[in-house]
Structure formats: structure tokens, C-alpha cells
Inverse folding.
């Protein structure tokens, strides 16, 4: 099985040095790109490859790039920004790539920047990723020393200044426009779209924000070609995906697998199955801001289209499992507390709707619930839904709640019973 | 010089003679489709087609049509940001789409054929849901909240139909801050619409009001307790949709909006002429709020104008006539005494006032004769205003309104600190520098109303603003270049700019290379701009500076044939320009007339001469005059020396006409009956039965004022036979408010001077804009009801913005080129005095408001730190400014070298800087010269 993204990653947790990276064929994709392809050719290849953004939304990468103004008259400076603000509960896939093989990211960054002709790139890194920051800093220095970054990269006319920015730590910074505001030193509130960052992004200039995993795909696509890349997948959606599992499994972790691997295979073969005494009750396939799926969905391929059809989202591909000993209401409350805390406070539904959601769930759990509360929760799911809020944070926050209300309604209703008759279902 | 000016950069003047006389503004009722005709697109709202203007957003379009849609974060002057989500409507994809989706009207551009629903159940449920969320933390303390009764949040809550609260959780609470003398802070009421910070930071350029924290803990306040620094902070009271920011001066004598008796008025604290609505209750003036004017103040006032009303009922207010010999007089005795003194006079010198109406000044002029009518302003200012009028009359100048100033794409300020002398103009200039941002937005296809996106795209890019002034100004932060120099050097720079624009204008010899380069840069920026604007004024009392402005204006007009040059001259007082147009004599002439014995009686109207000339001169004048009569509303040093003092009505108690610095004549009206025995200033002076007769007499005798009778409908104006009530229809307690004094209800006082009534009865609708005392519309109790009185959201008042422009229409044909002044001779060891103006401090009447006085500086002499070091003076060290006037030295970095700045007009600084004096600082122990 081909695992291009993680092939160099060592099991002992140490990083890959520049020498090791070069020895493994590293920067070959970049060399080829600079030598053989014009920027628009790179864009076309990536478009042809079918690569979709791995940050959660799954937007086609090449298409995203194509909105950047190109040519002589295009505004300067253009920017490429790496979204390394991995803060979605349950997600740790970018960390693996950042710590394990930082040069792969750098190579991807240079290729992407070349494709859109950006001369400054920023890595916006989650503040707690201190090890990743240290390794990335080291790798950037190595790359600069070798002429892989900076003026006239590899003797080409293309220059790129790559800067590392560590975040002060808000989940909302993962939203690309909030990230840009934060990078500019402003409050990390999202921006209205349009205008899209491709037109008016960082410092008002054309900007592309790509996820770490997305960028790590680029060296391989450019080096090995579109057909090879498509062949990695088991479904119509190309490439590999880093899938993660957290919850009561024998060996939680993250693995690079062909796109479209089923959740059953991931959980049972790679995560070692459920721990003794626990049964799977449901799972959030793409991280905390995706809808629950049930054991009956385990054989659905984990790709954007199939998971979407099942009523959830592939998201980051890092699933969180709910077992039969854990109360889904409490799990949802835990998530909603996180989202309520992380709301930037800009738009009304998110700022005031999430704390209300938390308050209702707390009331329910503490025995102060009223039968109409479930209807209120459902109403909030609608009110905080897509299109009603300024960005995707609140709709994402509502996904586990709305699906829990659908699939685990009895668990909610149980809290409406008098405490004595409720029974001890969960630990 | 160009021969004929056919236009200016800002279109024809908006106000014609008919303005203000037209029937006015019907309240737009939901769904009546009574919108102004617009060229452009059609959209379908709930099945009915409506015309809308291309380029607008849906919310603007819907409100402009007169329909109701609730909103919070959007503001017509600040555009859209999509934060509150309150203006959700359902948009359908096409004719077949029955479901539609929620979109925010404020963030959705109108498009031809667009189908939307305001009233569909989904749209209404969404908006009620958002409102319910906003209210989860709102304390519902309306009965004890000062916003109650004029609260946008109340109005919008009712509009959405949210009536039953389902939220049972705790409400988040905040600690409030002391924000200084103007503004109360009650953060628990906050619904986090972000308007306050957007207004304060983005619109006003302030940085000490911020948003802190996140999620539902967002906090709008200062980093720590302290005075809100920005000069326009008072508008937070009206910008905030609920009671977070309220008027602290109003709190001290609070009344509900519905209990206030109000009138259309004009601010009297500088020359800009902002429209205001003063409110009275129980015989005292309680507050000032903004009265929308589409060409002048728009939605915003400055803090001096909003909070400076305290003099009306202040401790120095004159309620009774008094004689120097016998003390208080009753009215008839006072009248007899006045008659006797005037009959006894061997010639009367009349001294008018730039803070009194045209009518009051004219009444004085009629009483004493044109040759004996004096302006009552300092001689330096008198000279400046004469020069200014000479330029306006003879050069192709267009005196811009503030709305026009906001459109300027290159601005040169010469010798003025507008924030201090004409504050609202400074706020307009702050918007003008954004024209570059709007141009960038155009290039990127971002609509102008998409406020955050425009700011993001433009970053720090600004249209060029150049400031040449003696001292740092409050607009320096947005200036492309600043230049600190003496007034003479500023004038020379201006002449060099003119030469740079038009080589025929004489060159300036001996400029420094830096000034040469700067002049060239300014000339280039002004020439290449579409709508260049020059701002100057009487601030540094330099006729040279004004002549330089004339030269630049003429040069620009020569370089841009057929187009008048946009100019705004800041003048110090509310009727400075009106008084100047009466061509009154100078104060020196008055002194000469008394000194020579041609006259022995001084009749002084609403003026404190000690603010106009130095103490020795005024003392001599008042001593020499055998009889001194003062008519004024406030006791001051001149009144204290008068033989007879007659109490005059303040602006809040009288009617009249003022001419603003735009050259616009505007009528103001009494909000209340004159206090005590005071009466309209002109009523002490002449036989006119009512104001209209006096206004007519003025219009007939001085051609420049020919049209002023059309400023507002006269006293005979009626709507369906009725006068216009000053009191809202919910006015309460009329029969009870005086019950502790006498049991029967007094008759409502009659008003013979205007079409307004001191009553709650009368014509409720269709008020002409000039006669509209307050804005109210069904469902709209806050000032945001003004939308119902505009031709479009944020546009002009329906029926025309009030006022008649008298001068400055660009018709002047030319003057010979002026000769640039020489470099001033250096004066060894001495400095030249220049006045430094303070928004809080330099205006006479507003300093009687304790809140304003609290913000005023203590007297000082400002020196450039290097000058101070050279003269061996340290910060805080006392120096003698004038005989026995000792002031501390203030080191002011950025002050031009060779000058000493003295605060203008402070009440406890009895040394007006009257001219371009030289001054040699004395320290204690020095031999005084």
C-alpha cells in the first residue's frame, strides 16, 4: 500500500532531517515543478488530480487557486498561508505531518506558492504545537540554507519567504478568514465572503489558505503525476487520507490509508477494535463538528461524497467514537461547552445560541429539564444552522447535537424522568 | 483667472429657495410603496414588484422603500458587517423556488428580478429567533433604563413579535466603567451589535474604546476606567441601539423622550451649523440630541455641541433685569430705564454678536443705525472675516457642505485644527480620506456598504490629506504629510502651492527646500484629484493664510477651467459669517467713536467684550462710556460692569436665523418659554410684533439676506389648519406637573413667532423638515425613526434639507493674483503668540456646562521643547504672559519653533490673543518690561 504522506515518518517520533528527506526523493517534486511547469500548469495539474482540501470543508484545491488573479497586472504581494491551527477536538493528523516530516510541508508550500505566484508564505501554527514549531523552524532554516527557500529557489526566478507564526490559541483561528485577521494582529473574527481571500485576503491582497495535509499532497502529485495519485484511492475521490480514531479503542491513533477506506476497517484493523467491555454506539466521522453516524454506517467508505450522503461530513477524517458506557448527552454537552467557549462573539446565533444550548443541556443533566427543552434544542439547531450564522462554527457545533437528538433521543428523554426512575445506564 | 464658472465638483447646491417650504415627509407606512422614484432595478418583495437602486444592499433598499425590517449592526453611515443577523429575509432562487433560504438583507446586493419575502413565516420566525437570542442576556430593565421609550432594541423586539422568553438560564453580567463626564456605561444591557466600536474606531478614529474578550463575554469599554477621549463620543448615545451608553448630563435631570418638549434647532457652539433637537421639561433644558440634516451633520454631533447646553439653566444665567445702582428690576421698570437711557444718549454705539441671530443683530442695527453698528469681535478676527468674505465674493469658490467635504479625494488644511474649531468638519474629513479605500473597493468589485471588506481591502491606503498648522492636530493620524510652522510660513507654503498649480501665480522666494518639495507634492495631489478641497479658517487669525487659500483656489480654478474650487472656512461662532455679511464696523471703530465723544452710550447685544480685546482696552471703553447697556442671557465680565443688564432668551428659548460656515442660513426655534423675565434679544430693541416681520425687514434691507425668509415656513404656516406640536402625543403629566404650585392647569403658552405650538395637540404628520421638532414614526421611537423622513436610507430629508445657501456658490469671477508675504522678521529672544483652540474650553457658552468645563485644559503657555530649553524654561514653570498673568509652561512637542501657543477663549484666562503679538517670556524675578 502506498503511503506517500507518511512514508518517512518514524515510529520513534523523531523528525526527518533535510538530508534524510532529500535521500528519500524529497524536493524532487519541487525541482520538477520549477523546471518543467508554468504556474498555471501546476494549477491545472492539481485541478486534474482532484485533490480536495483536507482541513474539513473538502473544497477542490485547484479550483480554489484558480480564483487568484494571475499575470503581470495581478496585485502584489500575494500570500500563501498554511492553516496549521489544528484545534478541532479529536484531530491530530496535521501534527503528525508537522512533527514527523516538516520538509514535506515546506516542499508543498513552495509548490503552492509558485502555482499562485505568492512570494510570502506564513505557517499559522496552533500555539500548543511547540514541538512542531521547533522542528518547523529548524527545517525552514535548513531549507533556506540549501536554497530551497528564499531568493531564486533552486536557481529559478521564483522567490519565497516562509515565516512561522504561532497562534495565541483560539479554535476560530482555524476558520481561514479569522486566521487572516489574527495574522494581521486583529481580533480573530471571521470575515464576510465575498470578497474571498483570493481577491482580498491577508493585508487586503490575494491570498490562498491551505491546510497542512492538503499541501503535503502536492510534492507527490507533481512528482508522480495525476494518474498515480488517482490510483491511490479506493473510490472516485483521489489520494490517500490520514484517518484518526479516538475513543475507547485498543490503540487510538492516525493512519494514512487510501481515500474511501471504511470506518469499520479503520476501527477494527488499525485501531484494534473496541476495548473489552465496550460496544460502539455511534461515531463522529470527521471530528467534533460533524454529525453522529451509527454502527450501521460502518461500511460506508470514508470519503467526502459517501459520508455526506449518509448525513454527516468527512471533516478532518479524525473520528471520535461514542461507546455504550458513555452518555451521549454528556458527550454532546462537553462538545457544546467547547464550541460556546470558542465562539468569537461576533454574530448573535453563535455567541448567544451556544451558551443557551449549553445551559439547556446542563439543566437537563442536572434534572432541571422540561419536556419542551428538546424542542428548544431542535429549534436552536435550526437557528444556528448553515447560512444563518456568520461562519461555519455554530452550524458545525450543532451537527453532533442535531444528530444526537435524532439517534439518541431516548438518552435525552431519560433525563426528563424523575431521578429515582432514571436508572444507572452509564458510569 | 477663469471667466465663468459653470460648475463645481460636487454638483449643484442641494438647497434651492424652495427648500424647506415643501410639504415634507409623510410617515412611510409599511407596504404602501410610497418610495422615492429611483432609476434602476426591480425586486419582488412578498409578491409585489418594487423599484430599487442598483448597487444597494437589500436592507437599504427595503428601508428606502419605507418598509420595516429590523436591524442592529447596520448603520446608514457605517454600512454593513453582517454581525447581528437580525435583518434576515427569505431569498428565492428563481420564480419556481417556493422554499427559499435565509439571507442577511444587509449583506445581499440587490439584483434585477430578485425575489424575496419579508413577511413569510420562515422569515418572521428567523428574526424572532435571533431577537430571542439577543435578549437572553439583556436585563429587561426598561423601567429604570434611560433608553426606555426611545430604544431601538425595544422597537425591534416589538417589530419581530418576540414576546415570550423561553431562556431560563442565568444572565451574564459585567462590571461597568466610569467613562468620564459625558457618558454612562451599563454593559449588562449590551446586545453586542459592535456598532459602538465600529463607530468609535472606524468612523471617528478613536482607539480607547475597544472590544475585549470573546464569546458571550464580549465587553465594550476601555482598557481601564477613564474619560473617553474622542471628541465625538457623545454619538455613542445614539449609535448604541440600547442603553449601554447613555447621556450622563441628561441623567442628572432625566426625563423620558416622550415627556420632552423639543424644537428644531441649530447648534450654537461653533460655525458649522449642525442641526439639533433640544429637549425641555419643567422649564429647564434637559439635553441635546442630533437632528438629521442630509448636508451637514447627518447622524452625528460633536461632544461640545451635545453636552454644552448647561449655560441655558446654569448658575450664571440671567433671569432678571438689573441696574448697577439699584439691583434687580422688574420688567416694566427695566423697559422704562432702557427707554430713558437711550433717549438720554448722546449717540449710541451698538455692539452686535456672532452668537446672536441675524434678527437680533439686525434689530440692534436698526436701533443704532448702520454706521454705529459694530461686530463685537476681536479686530484680528474682524480682519480675517473681511478677507474671507472678499475671497468668497470674488473668487470661484464653492463653500462645501460637510456631505460634500466627505467626498473630497484630496484635502489641504491650512492653519486650522478643525477638530477644535469646527469639530464636525473634522469628522467629515476623516471620512474623506476613505475615498481612496472606496476606489480600491471599486477595483475589486466590493460594494461600498460592505464596510469591513472595504477596510480590509484598503488597509492603510488613504486619500491624501495635508495639514499645515502651528501645532499638532487631531487629524495628524490620517494625514499624508504634516507641516508645523508659524502662520506666516503656512501662508507662504500656501502661496507656493498655488504657484505649483498655476505658474502664473507669483512664486514664493526663499522657501526652505523641504517646504518647496512639500508645496510641489501638495500642488500635484490637488491638481490630480477629482474633488480637491481646501480647509482653512480664522483659527490662527492670519489674513495671510486666508489670502493663500484664495490664491490656491484661484490657481486650481485656472488649472481646471469651468470648475469652482471647493473650500470650507471654519469660523468660530454660530453666526460669525452671518454677522460678517452685515458688514458691521470693527471694535476699534467702536472704541474710537466712544473715545472721540461722538457717542456716550454702549448698547451691547449678547457679547462679553473681555473675550474680544485685552482687558486694558475694554476697561477703557467701558469706563469712557457714560452709559453701558448689556442684553444677554449669561452674566459675564462685561455685564458686571453695565449700568443696565437686560435678560435675553437663550437659543433654546428664541427663534432666529444663523448663517453657517457653509454660507447656509438656517432657522432655529424655541424649545421652551424664555426663563424668568428674559425675552428674545430683539424684543428689547424694537417694535417688531413678531419674528417674521423682523426677518422680512432684514431681507428687504440687505440684499444678501433676500432669501432668508424661505429658510423655514413662517408663523402663519399651518397643516390642515393646525400648528406643529412641540410635544409628542404621549407627553404626560400636563395637568399634574404644576399641581404642587397651583391646582388649575395653565393655558398652553401661545407662540406668535413660529408655526410651532407649545402643546401636544396639532398636526402630527407632514411636517416640513425645517419645522420637525423630533423624529418619531409608528414602531420607531428611537432617533432611527429618521429613516422614515429621508428620501433614501442615509440620504436627504424628504422635502429637502433645510436652509438656504446665501454665498459661496462659485460665482466669483476673480481677483488679481496676491503677492505672497515675506518671511517674518525674527524677533530676538521673543516668540510670537498664536491661539491654540480647544473643543472643550475655547467656546464661551459651552464652558458653563460642568461636563464640558471638566474636559477643558488649565491655562498654559505652550512652547516647543527646544524653544523652552533655549529660553531656560522648564515644564510647569510659571511665566508672565501679560501684566500679572502668570501661566505654567507646557512643552508641546511638534509645536512650530518660534511661537508660543496660548489656549484660546478659556474663561479664566483673561488675555485673548488678539493678533500676531510678539511676546518675551518673563520668569519670576525677571524685570518686567
Amino acid at each position: 500500500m502506498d503511503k506517500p504522506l507518511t512514508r518517512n515518518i518514524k515510529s520513534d517520533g523523531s523528525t526527518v532531517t533535510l538530508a534524510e528527506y532529500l535521500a528519500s526523493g524529497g524536493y524532487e517534486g519541487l525541482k520538477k515543478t520549477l523546471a518543467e511547469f508554468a504556474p498555471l500548469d501546476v494549477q491545472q495539474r492539481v485541478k486534474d488530480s482532484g485533490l480536495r482540501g483536507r482541513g474539513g470543508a473538502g473544497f477542490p484545491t485547484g479550483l480554489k487557486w484558480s480564483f487568484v488573479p494571475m499575470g503581470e497586472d495581478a496585485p502584489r504581494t500575494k500570500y500563501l498561508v498554511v492553516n496549521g491551527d489544528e484545534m478541532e477536538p479529536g484531530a491530530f493528523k496535521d501534527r503528525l505531518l508537522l512533527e514527523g516530516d516538516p520538509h514535506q510541508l515546506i516542499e508543498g508550500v513552495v509548490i503552492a506558492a509558485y502555482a499562485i505566484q505568492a512570494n510570502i508564505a506564513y505557517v499559522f501554527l496552533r500555539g500548543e504545537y511547540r514541538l512542531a514549531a521547533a522542528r518547523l523552524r529548524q527545517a525552514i532554516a535548513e531549507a533556506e540554507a540549501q536554497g530551497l527557500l528564499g531568493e531564486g529557489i533552486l536557481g529559478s526566478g521564483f522567490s519565497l519567504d516562509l515565516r512561522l507564526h504561532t497562534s495565541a490559541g483560539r479554535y476560530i483561528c482555524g476558520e481561514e478568514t479569522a486566521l487572516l485577521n489574527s495574522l494581521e494582529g486583529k481580533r480573530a473574527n471571521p470575515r464576510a465572503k465575498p470578497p474571498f481571500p483570493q481577491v482580498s485576503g491577508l493585508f487586503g491582497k490575494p491570498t490562498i489558505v491551505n491546510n497542512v495535509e492538503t499541501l503535503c499532497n502536492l510534492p507527490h502529485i507533481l512528482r508522480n503525476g495525476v494518474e498515480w495519485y488517482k490510483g491511490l484511492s479506493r473510490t472516485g475521490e483521489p489520494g490517500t487520507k490520514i484517518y484518526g480514531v479516538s475513543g475507547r479503542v485498543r490503540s487510538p491513533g492516525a493512519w494514512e490509508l487510501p481515500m474511501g477506506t471504511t470506518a469499520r476497517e479503520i476501527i477494527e484493523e488499525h485501531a484494534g477494535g473496541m476495548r473489552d467491555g465496550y460496544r460502539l454506539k455511534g461515531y463522529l466521522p470527521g471530528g467534533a463538528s460533524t454529525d453522529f453516524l451509527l454502527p450501521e454506517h460502518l461500511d460506508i467508505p470514508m470519503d467526502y461524497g459517501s459520508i455526506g450522503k449518509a448525513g454527516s461530513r468527512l471533516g478532518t477524517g479524525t473520528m471520535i467514537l461514542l461507546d455504550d458506557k458513555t452518555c451521549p448527552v454528556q458527550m454532546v454537552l462537553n462538545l457544546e461547552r467547547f464550541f460556546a467557549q470558542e465562539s468569537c462573539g461576533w454574530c448573535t446565533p453563535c455567541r448567544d445560541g451556544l451558551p443557551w444550548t449549553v445551559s439547556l443541556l446542563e439543566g437537563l443533566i442536572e434534572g432541571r429539564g422540561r419536556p419542551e427543552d428538546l424542542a428548544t434544542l431542535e429549534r436552536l439547531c435550526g437557528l444556528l444552522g448553515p447560512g444563518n450564522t456568520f461562519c461555519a462554527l455554530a452550524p458545525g457545533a450543532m451537527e453532533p447535537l442535531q444528530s444526537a437528538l435524532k439517534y439518541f433521543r431516548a438518552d435525552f428523554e431519560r433525563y426528563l424522568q424523575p431521578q429515582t426512575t432514571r436508572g444507572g445506564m452509564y458510569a | 483667472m477663469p471667466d465663468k464658472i459653470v460648475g463645481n465638483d460636487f454638483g449643484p447646491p442641494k438647497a434651492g429657495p424652495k427648500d424647506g417650504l415643501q410639504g415634507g415627509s409623510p410617515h412611510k407606512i409599511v407596504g404602501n410603496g410610497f418610495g422615492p422614484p429611483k432609476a434602476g432595478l426591480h425586486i419582488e418583495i412578498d409578491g409585489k414588484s418594487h423599484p430599487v437602486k442598483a448597487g444597494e444592499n437589500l436592507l437599504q433598499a427595503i428601508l428606502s422603500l419605507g418598509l420595516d425590517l429590523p436591524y442592529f449592526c447596520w448603520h446608514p453611515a457605517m454600512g454593513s458587517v453582517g454581525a447581528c443577523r437580525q435583518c434576515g429575509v427569505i431569498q428565492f432562487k428563481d420564480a419556481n423556488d417556493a422554499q427559499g433560504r435565509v439571507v442577511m438583507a444587509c449583506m445581499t446586493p440587490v439584483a434585477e428580478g430578485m425575489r424575496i419575502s419579508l413577511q413569510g413565516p420562515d422569515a418572521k420566525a428567523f428574526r424572532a429567533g435571533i431577537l430571542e437570542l439577543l435578549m437572553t442576556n439583556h436585563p429587561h430593565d426598561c423601567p429604570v433604563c434611560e433608553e426606555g421609550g426611545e430604544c431601538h432594541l425595544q422597537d425591534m423586539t416589538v417589530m419581530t413579535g418576540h414576546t415570550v422568553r423561553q431562556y431560563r438560564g442565568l444572565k451574564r453580567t459585567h462590571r461597568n466603567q466610569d467613562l468620564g463626564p459625558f457618558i454612562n456605561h451599563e454593559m449588562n444591557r449590551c446586545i453586542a451589535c459592535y456598532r459602538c466600536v465600529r463607530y468609535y474606531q472606524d468612523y471617528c478614529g478613536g482607539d480607547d474604546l475597544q472590544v475585549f474578550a470573546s464569546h458571550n463575554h464580549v465587553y465594550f469599554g476601555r482598557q481601564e476606567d477613564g474619560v473617553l477621549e474622542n471628541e465625538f463620543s457623545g454619538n455613542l448615545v445614539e449609535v448604541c441601539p440600547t442603553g449601554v451608553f447613555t447621556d450622563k448630563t441628561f441623567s442628572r435631570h432625566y426625563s423620558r423622550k416622550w415627556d420632552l418638549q423639543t424644537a428644531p434647532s441649530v447648534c450654537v457652539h461653533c460655525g458649522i451649523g449642525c442641526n439639533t433637537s433640544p429637549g425641555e421639561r419643567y422649564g429647564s433644558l434637559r439635553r441635546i440630541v442630533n437632528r438629521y440634516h442630509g448636508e451637514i451633520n447627518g447622524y452625528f454631533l460633536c461632544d461640545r455641541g451635545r453636552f454644552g447646553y448647561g449655560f441655558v439653566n446654569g448658575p450664571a444665567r440671567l433671569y432678571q433685569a438689573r441696574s448697577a445702582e439699584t439691583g434687580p428690576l422688574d420688567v416694566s421698570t427695566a423697559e422704562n430705564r432702557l427707554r430713558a437711557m437711550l433717549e438720554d444718549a448722546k449717540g449710541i454705539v451698538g455692539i452686535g454678536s456672532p452668537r446672536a441671530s441675524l434678527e437680533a443683530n439686525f434689530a440692534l442695527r436698526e436701533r443704532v443705525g448702520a454706521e454705529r453698528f459694530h461686530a463685537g469681535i476681536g479686530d484680528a478676527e474682524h480682519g480675517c472675516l473681511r478677507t474671507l468674505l472678499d475671497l468668497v465674493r470674488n473668487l470661484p469658490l464653492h463653500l462645501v457642505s460637510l456631505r460634500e467635504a466627505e467626498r473630497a479625494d484630496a484635502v489641504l488644511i491650512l492653519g486650522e485644527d478643525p477638530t477644535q474649531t469646527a469639530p464636525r468638519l473634522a469628522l467629515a474629513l476623516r471620512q474623506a480620506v476613505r475615498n481612496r479605500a472606496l476606489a480600491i473597493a471599486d477595483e475589486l468589485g466590493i460594494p461600498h456598504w460592505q464596510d469591513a471588506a472595504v477596510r480590509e481591502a484598503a488597509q492603510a491606503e488613504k486619500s491624501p490629506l495635508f495639514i499645515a498648522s502651528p501645532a499638532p492636530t487631531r487629524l495628524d493620524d490620517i494625514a499624508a504629510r504634516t507641516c508645523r510652522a508659524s502662520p506666516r510660513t503656512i501662508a507662504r507654503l500656501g502661496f507656493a502651492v498655488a504657484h505649483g498649480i498655476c505658474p502664473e501665480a507669483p512664486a514664493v522666494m526663499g522657501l526652505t527646500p523641504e517646504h518647496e518639495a512639500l508645496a510641489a507634492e501638495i500642488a500635484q495631489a490637488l491638481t490630480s484629484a477629482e474633488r480637491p478641497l481646501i480647509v482653512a479658517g480664522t483659527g490662527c487669525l492670519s489674513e495671510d493664510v486666508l489670502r493663500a487659500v484664495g490664491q490656491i483656489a484661484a490657481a486650481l480654478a485656472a488649472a481646471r477651467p469651468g470648475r469652482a474650487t471647493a473650500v470650507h472656512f471654519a469660523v468660530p461662532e454660530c453666526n460669525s459669517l452671518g454677522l460678517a455679511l452685515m458688514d458691521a464696523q470693527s471694535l476699534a471703530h467702536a472704541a474710537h467713536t466712544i473715545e472721540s465723544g461722538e457717542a456716550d452710550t454702549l448698547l451691547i447685544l449678547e457679547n462679553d467684550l473681555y473675550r474680544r480685546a485685552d482687558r486694558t482696552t475694554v476697561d477703557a471703553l467701558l469706563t469712557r462710556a457714560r452709559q453701558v447697556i448689556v442684553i444677554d442671557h449669561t452674566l459675564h465680565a462685561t455685564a458686571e460692569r453695565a449700568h443696565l443688564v437686560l435678560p435675553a432668551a437663550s437659543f433654546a428659548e428664541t427663534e432666529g436665523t444663523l448663517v453657517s460656515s457653509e454660507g447656509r442660513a438656517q432657522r432655529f426655534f424655541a424649545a421652551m418659554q424664555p426663563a424668568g423675565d428674559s425675552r428674545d434679544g430683539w424684543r428689547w430693541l424694537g417694535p417688531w410684533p413678531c419674528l417674521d416681520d423682523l426677518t422680512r425687514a432684514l431681507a428687504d434691507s440687505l440684499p444678501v439676506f433676500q432669501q432668508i425668509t424661505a429658510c423655514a415656513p413662517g408663523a402663519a404656516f399651518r397643516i390642515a389648519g393646525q400648528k406643529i406640536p412641540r410635544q409628542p402625543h404621549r407627553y404626560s403629566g400636563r395637568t399634574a406637573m404644576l399641581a404642587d404650585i397651583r391646582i388649575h392647569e395653565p393655558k398652553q403658552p401661545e407662540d406668535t413667532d413660529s408655526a410651532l405650538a407649545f402643546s401636544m395637540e396639532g398636526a402630527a404628520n407632514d411636517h416640513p423638515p425645517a419645522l420637525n421638532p423630533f423624529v418619531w414614526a409608528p414602531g420607531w421611537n428611537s432617533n432611527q425613526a429618521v429613516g422614515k423622513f429621508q428620501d433614501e436610507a442615509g440620504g436627504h430629508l424628504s422635502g429637502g434639507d433645510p436652509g438656504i445657501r446665501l454665498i459661496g456658490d462659485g460665482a466669483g469671477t476673480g481677483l488679481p493674483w496676491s503677492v505672497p508675504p515675506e518671511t517674518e522678521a525674527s524677533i530676538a529672544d521673543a516668540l510670537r503668540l498664536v491661539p491654540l483652540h480647544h473643543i472643550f474650553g475655547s467656546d464661551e457658552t459651552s464652558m458653563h456646562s460642568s461636563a464640558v468645563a471638566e474636559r477643558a485644559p488649565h491655562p498654559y503657555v505652550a512652547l516647543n521643547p527646544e524653544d523652552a530649553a533655549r529660553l531656560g524654561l522648564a515644564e510647569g514653570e510659571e511665566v508672565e504672559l501679560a501684566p500679572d498673568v502668570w501661566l505654567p509652561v507646557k512643552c508641546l512637542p511638534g509645536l512650530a519653533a518660534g511661537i508660543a501657543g496660548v489656549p484660546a477663549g478659556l474663561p479664566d484666562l483673561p488675555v485673548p490673543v488678539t493678533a500676531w503679538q510678539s511676546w518675551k517670556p518673563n520668569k519670576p524675578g525677571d524685570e518686567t518690561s
In short: Chain B has a mean pLDDT of 93. DSSP finds 26 helices and 37 strands in chain B. Chain B touches chain A through 45 residues (CB under 8 Å).
